[in-house]
Design a protein that fits this description.
This is TAP-like protein-domain-containing protein. This protein is of the alpha/beta class and about 525 residues long. The protein has two domains: about 1-85 and about 135-200 and about 385-455, 3-Layer(aba) Sandwich (Rossmann fold); about 100-135 and about 210-375 and about 480-515, no CATH class. It has helices at about 45-60, 100-130, 140-155, 165-180, 195-200, 200-210, 215-225, 240-260, 275-285, 290-300, 305-315, 320-330, 340-350, 355-365, 405-415, 435-450, 475-485, 500-515; strands at about 1-5, 15-25, 35-40, 65-70, 160-165, 185-190, 260-265, 270, 390-400, 420-425, 460. A nine-stranded mixed beta sheet has the order 1-2-4-3-5-6-9-10-11, with helices on both faces. A two-stranded antiparallel ribbon has the order 7-8. Strand 9, helix 15 and strand 10 (about 420-425) form a beta-alpha-beta unit.
Length: about 525
């Protein structure tokens, strides 16, 4: 990789420089059209690895006549300043199956109060460790870095090409609205709404984020039932009613509220609560190719061994805290939020939107921004509806569990005359979750000549979350273990985007087997 020096503070030239790590995969066809900047999401995702190891894969989608530029945003990965946290938040929200029980509300308020104290302590440690440098993270500064580096690579006033996944779609919206006259080819894929990101507290954002989560969760069981016991560890017979599988798992998760599962053989021994169980499932919904391993982890835990599940949930690492530095510098200040306010909104969302609301709320580090100790030199809060010199392409899945189609439709409405919308009929987070020749063709056409899909275009996929095993076995768990061991060992673009990937699940399963 290479390193580019950029201004640390674009409002104060005397503040010094930040060093941005870049990975570059050169165009392999002539004439070269320019460079495409990629961001895999997060915040906290590293782009250097993405470009250097997967550059050829990305060229399949944008064309071989583009350079692929991946970068680690300031505070992330190999870039300097480096983010140093020194501690990791304790996480886990347990929710009673009886939502009308007044004690449940009291318990949740106490949990939220504890979470607030943890956030406050965490961010005080961040301030003590890093001082004023943490104020220089943030999406506004990062898109100015993109513009600065693009000028070095392509010349003054050159157009900026960009492809962002997940949080990278927020970055893309900042980019095109701060530099509307510099837009070249820009794709945002797996869309988060930047207006909501910047201007709403996380507990207000989550009902929209989780708009499709429960539908995707139900789809997991439909696909499991369709695949049968030789491919899905949770199925007990062929042609099983998916509601029967769903109810078995939900009853077991509910039982963890009263009796958490002891997990002595995990890498970090502990207990599996119903909140952690939901975290495991919610994270796994993002990567449909990992659904066989999700089913296997659940099946093992329901038989008493929660090692795979707990190991996967414990994969939470520094990336989450790097995310805090970005999201909290981006968010409009909200003042101190009362635990009662958050819990009452959450109980309403739990019943009307998603059963995953509370378990996700504590897992998302954005929720503590009321205690963020610094103010960034620049914070863009909108508007988000600029007229762009070239239209962008918005890509959304029908069953994306964390960045739902409604987000893509909302951003498309903001940029009505400056965007096109492509819908992929599939589960998973971003169009890379499952392969679609149709989606790839539309992406290549857009990067080749700016062609947008006809309004209402929907692309189908060629992959299934539960592919049939090559050798069926009598035991559903043994059969699925074989699938988990052999599943798609080749690194894919989707593996750089999802929080709980098939690869991470294999590692978690390997660790649990090694410990037993």
């Amino acid at each position: 990789h290479i390193v580019s020096s950029v201004p640390l503070d674009y409002t104060n030239s005397s503040a010094g420089v930040a060093k941005i790590a870049l990975g570059r995969y050169n165009a392999t066809a002539s004439p070269r059209k320019g460079a495409v900047f990629f961001n895999p999401g997060g915040p906290g995702g590293t782009g250097v690895y993405l470009a250097t190891q997967l550059g050829a894969s990305f060229q399949e989608f944008v064309g071989e006549d583009y350079d692929i530029i991946g970068f680690d945003p300031r505070g992330i990965g190999l870039s300097e300043y480096a983010f140093i946290a020194n501690t990791v938040l304790d996480r886990g929200y347990d929710v009673s199956p009886n939502l009308t029980d007044p004690f449940n509300r009291y318990h949740l308020i106490e949990t939220q109060r504890d979470a607030n104290a943890l956030y406050q302590a965490q961010f005080q440690v961040c301030a003590q460790t890093m001082g004023e440098t943490i104020k220089y993270a943030g999406t506004t500064s990062v898109v100015r870095d993109i513009d600065y580096i693009n000028t070095i690579l392509e010349g003054n006033n050159s157009l900026i090409n960009f492809y962002g996944f997940s949080y990278g779609t927020v970055m893309g919206q900042y980019l095109v609205n701060i530099f509307p006259d510099r837009v070249g080819r820009v794709v945002i894929d797996g869309v988060a709404d930047a207006d909501s990101w910047a201007n709403k507290a996380p507990y207000q954002q989550l009902p929209v984020w989780l708009n499709s989560t429960d539908a995707t969760y139900k789809l997991l069981y439909s696909e499991c039932a369709k695949a049968g016991p030789t491919a899905c560890a949770l199925a007990t017979k062929e042609n099983e009613d998916p509601n029967d599988i769903f109810n078995r798992v939900e009853d077991w998760i509910d039982s963890l509220y009263e009796t958490p599962l002891a997990v002595p053989n995990a890498t970090l021994p502990g207990i599996l609560t119903n909140g952690r169980a939901r975290l495991f499932i919610e994270g796994g919904l993002e990567a449909p190719l990992g659904w066989p391993q999700i089913a296997l982890g659940l099946a093992e835990a329901m038989l008493g061994d929660g090692s795979t599940m707990l190991n996967a949930v414990n994969e939470k690492d520094l990336v989450d805290l790097e995310r805090s530095a970005v999201s909290c510098n981006d968010q409009k200040p909200f003042g101190l939020l009362k635990p009662e306010t958050v819990v009452d909104a959450g109980l309403a969302a739990l019943q009307s939107v998603s059963r995953f609301f509370f378990s996700v709320l504590v897992a998302e580090p954005d929720s503590g921004c009321q205690y963020w100790p610094v103010t960034p030199p620049e914070r863009y809060l909108g508007p988000w509806n600029h007229t762009l010199n070239n239209p962008i392409l918005i890509v959304s899945n029908t069953h994306d569990p964390v960045t739902p189609l409604v987000n893509g439709q909302a951003v498309h409405s903001y940029l009505a005359n400056s965007s096109g919308l492509l819908i992929q009929n599939s589960p998973g987070h971003t169009s890379q979750a499952l392969q679609s020749t149709c989606t790839k063709q539309h992406l290549r056409a857009y990067f080749a000549n700016g062609t947008l899909p006809t309004p209402g275009t929907v692309c189908e996929v060629e992959e299934s979350p539960f592919p049939p095993p090559s050798n069926s076995t009598a035991s559903s768990i043994i059969g699925s273990a074989a699938i988990a061991a052999s599943a798609n060992s080749k690194m894919r673009i989707s593996d750089t985007i999802h929080r709980i990937t098939p690869d991470k699940l294999r590692k978690a399963s390997d660790r649990s087997q090694g410990a037993s």
